[in-house]
Amino acid sequence: MAETATRSKSASSSGSSKTRRAGTRSGGNRSQRRASEVFPGESPQTLCDYYRQMALIRRFEERAAQGYTQAKIGGYCHLNLGEEATVVGLMSTLRSDDYLFTNYREHGYAIAKGIEPGRVMAELYGRSTGTSKGWGGSMHMFDVESGLLGGYGIVGGQVPLATGAALAIDYRSGDQVVMCQMGDGTTNIGSFHESLNIAALWNLPVVFVVVNNHLGMGTTVDKSSAESELYKRAVAYRMHGERVDGNDVVAVREASSRLVERARETGQPAMLETVSHRLKGHSVVDPGKYRSQESVEAAREADPVAAFRAQLISAEVLDEDGAVEIERQAEASADAAVAFADDSPHPNPETLFDYTYATPVANDSRRLPADPVF
Amino acid sequence: MAETATRSKSASSSGSSKTRRAGTRSGGNRSQRRASEVFPGESPQTLCDYYRQMALIRRFEERAAQGYTQAKIGGYCHLNLGEEATVVGLMSTLRSDDYLFTNYREHGYAIAKGIEPGRVMAELYGRSTGTSKGWGGSMHMFDVESGLLGGYGIVGGQVPLATGAALAIDYRSGDQVVMCQMGDGTTNIGSFHESLNIAALWNLPVVFVVVNNHLGMGTTVDKSSAESELYKRAVAYRMHGERVDGNDVVAVREASSRLVERARETGQPAMLETVSHRLKGHSVVDPGKYRSQESVEAAREADPVAAFRAQLISAEVLDEDGAVEIERQAEASADAAVAFADDSPHPNPETLFDYTYATPVANDSRRLPADPVF
Amino acid sequence: MAVITYRQALHDTLREEMLVDEDVFLIGEEIGVFEGSYKITAGLLDEFGEKRVRDTPIAEEGFVGAAVGAAMLGLRPVAELMTINFSLIALDQIVNHAAKIYGMFGGQCSVPMVMRTPGGGGQQLGATHSQNIELYYAFVPGLKVVAPSTPADARSLLLASIRDNDPVLFLENLSLYNTKGEVPEQAEQVEIGKAAVTRPGSDVTIIGYSRMATVAQQVAEKLADEEGISAEVVDLRSLRPLDRDTLVQSVRKTGCAVIAEDDWLTYGIGAEVAASLSDGAFDYLDVPVRRVAAAEVPLPYAKPLERAALPSADSLTTAVRETLDAVGRRR
Amino acid sequence: MAVITYRQALHDTLREEMLVDEDVFLIGEEIGVFEGSYKITAGLLDEFGEKRVRDTPIAEEGFVGAAVGAAMLGLRPVAELMTINFSLIALDQIVNHAAKIYGMFGGQCSVPMVMRTPGGGGQQLGATHSQNIELYYAFVPGLKVVAPSTPADARSLLLASIRDNDPVLFLENLSLYNTKGEVPEQAEQVEIGKAAVTRPGSDVTIIGYSRMATVAQQVAEKLADEEGISAEVVDLRSLRPLDRDTLVQSVRKTGCAVIAEDDWLTYGIGAEVAASLSDGAFDYLDVPVRRVAAAEVPLPYAKPLERAALPSADSLTTAVRETLDAVGRRR
Ligand SMILES: Cc1ncc(C[n+]2csc(CCOP(=O)(O)OP(=O)(O)O)c2C)c(N)n1
Ligand SMILES: Cc1ncc(C[n+]2csc(CCOP(=O)(O)OP(=O)(O)O)c2C)c(N)n1
Ligand SMILES: [Mg+2]
Ligand SMILES: [Mg+2]
């Protein structure tokens, strides 16, 4: 069991060969030297791309919050604000044919896994062009092509499913990997335990990622998990577990990549805990009154987008203008996503009975509330 | 986390003051000297009493198997054969006002916790004089007075209940302890995880005992638990866990007593794994064909009743005649239990609706199958 | 007599029972620090402390089971299940344990506990968060299931449930929390197991429970005002036991009935109601009992789809009108 | 055409489907080394190996959920839940996941899986091990639920279930495993969602499913032999969808009906059947639909109590006779 890692720059003991690591460009100019001190082995291009994605998710989530306030979006709406480094770091380590299962806090994952932001926003807006054709909403995004096998609203619900997907890969001797994202609070539910045991027992290629944002809704990790260093729980299954700073996109990428490639090559599951902060309430409607001033402050100070921006500038990977340009583009993308969503058609009520069954069946009920039975 | 213990004779670091330990009689004669070498600190009387109880459970279970074969007993019938040392060792550490929750393999526990064998057998026979008035059967014994708060047939079902009972003790600042017995296979189900976490989080006085008999029904521990040293799973809850030889009644008593008294004094839960063998099939009807010759042999060789008898004789706590006398008494008790059961009345079908609700309620249905609704 | 919300009625009753009985305590996810997902328990942690208001890990099976165990020793836990959808995770503890312990052990140990939980769709929460699965509890002997629709009933039935010695599933509804109604200072004792005729009438019986009982009431009033129709409204209030007599009595008088329910039609709560009426009022029914229920689909998120799938005042009105037309009783 | 047991029919069908489709695999507790609690899977581990016959830990939620996940990637898992009582632990994965995934994600991903599980009381297994809770599945859109009563139907419906692209709850019954019947070599394709008239008749319709369909058949034959009564028997076979048309057609002919079910009466499967008949055959029913079901108690262990609580050929016969008396059709 690894100790808490802050930024593990060394390659992993296994599986590094297949890692999609961005090549280092040993440039001759000062800024690249500077960059390679702060971010050894990272190409400026990759770093900028991470920032681009993080900025996009930030802007996207802000738009989602707006849309919710404007009642363009209904139901519950949980944002990735504060988790951008984690999301981007994790997603950068998955192949497009790898599978991802998440909880309901998944807008960022959907985007970083490769879905058009417009389709993600359209799902929030409940439109036919959305990732789930408007049937799922914020909590239930799905996209076969990019391998997002669902956001799930039932805490812990995705964990057995992800384990089963890994079983299918193993069954077919495929070389894909499943990533199963969940929150800290989810480690206390039975399905977590049952699934990690099964994954370890059967040696299934799944990486369980616990995004520790210190909170369930308002309940802290200390108040909900008797072992609050969550990655240590892997030991109950003889599974490798480790913790990484979830505010550090490169560190997350490193750790995740190591575990993903290990799973790909050996079939061994692992647990990765990323530690970061939730910048806002549990969902858009939650004012978060229960949080201490310090906790809110700590979260704000650790803001991964702001921190990464500052790092990039100080490392001279980006200058202020470059950063602003990226943010401008992110804003434009988020706005375009909103426009796309807003312009998209609502699902036709006549499609109500289209998705009850995949195989049509005799005597299926297709009754509307006012229809008589006979 | 303690390492595997075989026989921990030392007092526990905490909680020993209240331990009901049988006093050592430092006798002058040879046999007592001999006894105190093999069983340091144990009174012959206590040791004989353990043997008496173990022999009784052995005979009782043999009678239960007979009764089942004669169709005097219905349903499922799971026996404690091979687990007598564990049962007696554990039960000797509970006060009569401590609470016990078990699984469906609980006849021995019921007897050792202080219920008349006749009432236990009567329950198997489905009679009104049984521990559950014939409503529960083999899997569902209950007795308020002796603190047996139920045998439960749903694997893992008793674990949350036991945790809740400990919560009630804590709520009322009582000094009782709850013991929650379960099998090795039970450590893989969600309720185990949820409950151990809650017990540790809230510091509840409950000792979780995992009786590792190496098998679920036919599935071995290796095939069902990714961490097959089950006591180590306690670490996922920062809970103390240890393992003891379940064939050694004194070792079980020592370990259990230490953890029970620790729970009593500090409120801290713990997990105790006892390792022994199932001598026969999963239930009376199971021929156990799936078991390897070695496994069956190993079980037979480790037979705790035979082994303890031999030890007692070699330690000169008992001689052959004394042992035979104890066995004769055990047999007589078991026979008396059968006679009592057989002579007891069947429940009256008119009582069918007596136990649906504790508080009578308007419009409760009391319809028999042939009765019309109106 | 004060006019308060359904939420307030629940809150106040919990608080009062905690004040009068030391054995009553609250347990559930996010009920303390977060003050409850729907704020029913707001302020109670501050007032009563962690012992009486216990935030749990996300572990429905574990904490509901712990409540059952605590009840076995005589405490009176009131567990909050954040929504009825999540109660499925605790179902084994509720159905196989809470509901069985009294009977299975021959009446030696009762389980005096309450499980409060809201059901309900219509909030665009999607297929897994909008279900009405009270049937899962109403079906089970050993449980009692109540489903108040008004603040006054919420108060008296919660009182009755907490004081009852059996496990009670107390069904709330997301869309009722903000509804208002008169609640007497001194709660009347409402008996579990009794339906209420909440509006007398003679042309047709409309039967509902929880949210749809209030919709039934509105529809009845509107039909009276606008079309002079005299509809009798029966609020089931208790799903287990089911008060067949009150239902049958009403239909023997009106000769026809419409059932309004938020759950799915086939096998839904209304099926038993319709079956019971068709039996007990066989000679009195002029037309078949009509049921208005949700379309049988996983409820979609998008508003137009969700709206099409759920019963409403409109669909109920249509059904009542058609029923009256069929018996030739529309003026 | 061979006469084999229900158990054998299940076993053979599983084996054959595993032979023809590599994607079909079995998963469950004690199905391999132990050969299944009720020996349905005996020999299959030896023949197909651990990849195709997967013993699981005791973790119903985990392994059923894993089967759902595997089905999402196109495999065809057949999960065995040792008895339906234990399925409660997996209910969240079945109701909130297996049943929702196709709809909730807008039809992008189907879940082709089968959950085999026996229900049934009468074996003195006590309150938690004797339940008939198929209702929990039959109520849920997105699931299909079949309940064959004969070896032939067991075979054809299992075939249809495995080949279906939706999650199917396949209900067996402890007391049917040893029953025998003719099974054609080439299984006919039986459509899910269709009831069967297993005995034509004109005096009364007796409706059952699973074990009670066979009891209905026996009772009908005996009444014909001994009292010259012509009872039509309908075996529901599919609980979701429910084939209302076949039921209604029969009752429009006979004018009266008795439903036989092993589950509890109130809210049981028969409630929907009675409600549907009372509606669809309103003008044809001469007397109310009669239901024969289990007494609403946690089922006791002791034989005399258990016997009193469960429906049987005797109680069904009584109900049929009384129904015929009521319409004056007894000779
Ligand atoms: C089974 C279940 N119980 C309760 C809830 C309500 N709920 C939604 S999110 C949440 C907190 C989850 O916390 P965590 O796992 O840390 O994820 P985060 O929201 O922090 O990403 C709860 C209790 C639920 N959706 N499902
Ligand atoms: C939830 C649940 N799943 C499955 C079963 C069937 N079952 C009864 S006993 C058993 C094996 C239990 O093994 P273990 O926990 O080791 O206890 P042991 O029988 O060895 O004492 C199983 C699978 C059950 N009773 N409950
Ligand atoms: Mg969290
Ligand atoms: Mg075992």
From TrEMBL, chains A, B:
<feature type="region of interest" description="Disordered">
    <location>
        <begin position="1"/>
        <end position="41"/>
    </location>
</feature>
<dbReference type="GO" id="GO:0004739">
    <property type="term" value="F:pyruvate dehydrogenase (acetyl-transferring) activity"/>
</dbReference>
<feature type="compositionally biased region" description="Low complexity">
    <location>
        <begin position="1"/>
        <end position="17"/>
    </location>
</feature>
<dbReference type="InterPro" id="IPR017597">
    <property type="entry name" value="Pyrv_DH_E1_asu_subgrp-y"/>
</dbReference>
<dbReference type="GO" id="GO:0006086">
    <property type="term" value="P:pyruvate decarboxylation to acetyl-CoA"/>
</dbReference>
<comment type="subunit">
    <text>Heterodimer of an alpha and a beta chain.</text>
</comment>
<dbReference type="InterPro" id="IPR029061">
    <property type="entry name" value="THDP-binding"/>
</dbReference>
<keyword id="KW-0786">Thiamine pyrophosphate</keyword>
<keyword id="KW-0670">Pyruvate</keyword>
<keyword id="KW-0560">Oxidoreductase</keyword>
<dbReference type="Pfam" id="PF00676">
    <property type="entry name" value="E1_dh"/>
</dbReference>
<dbReference type="InterPro" id="IPR050642">
    <property type="entry name" value="PDH_E1_Alpha_Subunit"/>
</dbReference>
<protein>
    <recommendedName>
        <fullName>Pyruvate dehydrogenase E1 component subunit alpha</fullName>
        <ecNumber>1.2.4.1</ecNumber>
    </recommendedName>
</protein>
<comment type="function">
    <text>The pyruvate dehydrogenase complex catalyzes the overall conversion of pyruvate to acetyl-CoA and CO(2).</text>
</comment>
<dbReference type="GO" id="GO:0000287">
    <property type="term" value="F:magnesium ion binding"/>
</dbReference>
<dbReference type="InterPro" id="IPR001017">
    <property type="entry name" value="DH_E1"/>
</dbReference>
<feature type="domain" description="Dehydrogenase E1 component">
    <location>
        <begin position="52"/>
        <end position="350"/>
    </location>
</feature>
UniProtKB/TrEMBL annotation, chains C, D:
<keyword id="KW-0560">Oxidoreductase</keyword>
<dbReference type="Pfam" id="PF02779">
    <property type="entry name" value="Transket_pyr"/>
</dbReference>
<feature type="domain" description="Transketolase-like pyrimidine-binding">
    <location>
        <begin position="4"/>
        <end position="179"/>
    </location>
</feature>
<keyword id="KW-0786">Thiamine pyrophosphate</keyword>
<keyword id="KW-0670">Pyruvate</keyword>
<protein>
    <submittedName>
        <fullName>Pyruvate dehydrogenase E1 component beta subunit</fullName>
        <ecNumber>1.2.4.1</ecNumber>
    </submittedName>
</protein>
<dbReference type="InterPro" id="IPR033248">
    <property type="entry name" value="Transketolase_C"/>
</dbReference>
<dbReference type="Pfam" id="PF02780">
    <property type="entry name" value="Transketolase_C"/>
</dbReference>
<dbReference type="InterPro" id="IPR029061">
    <property type="entry name" value="THDP-binding"/>
</dbReference>
<dbReference type="GO" id="GO:0000287">
    <property type="term" value="F:magnesium ion binding"/>
</dbReference>
<dbReference type="InterPro" id="IPR005475">
    <property type="entry name" value="Transketolase-like_Pyr-bd"/>
</dbReference>
<dbReference type="GO" id="GO:0004739">
    <property type="term" value="F:pyruvate dehydrogenase (acetyl-transferring) activity"/>
</dbReference>
<dbReference type="InterPro" id="IPR009014">
    <property type="entry name" value="Transketo_C/PFOR_II"/>
</dbReference>
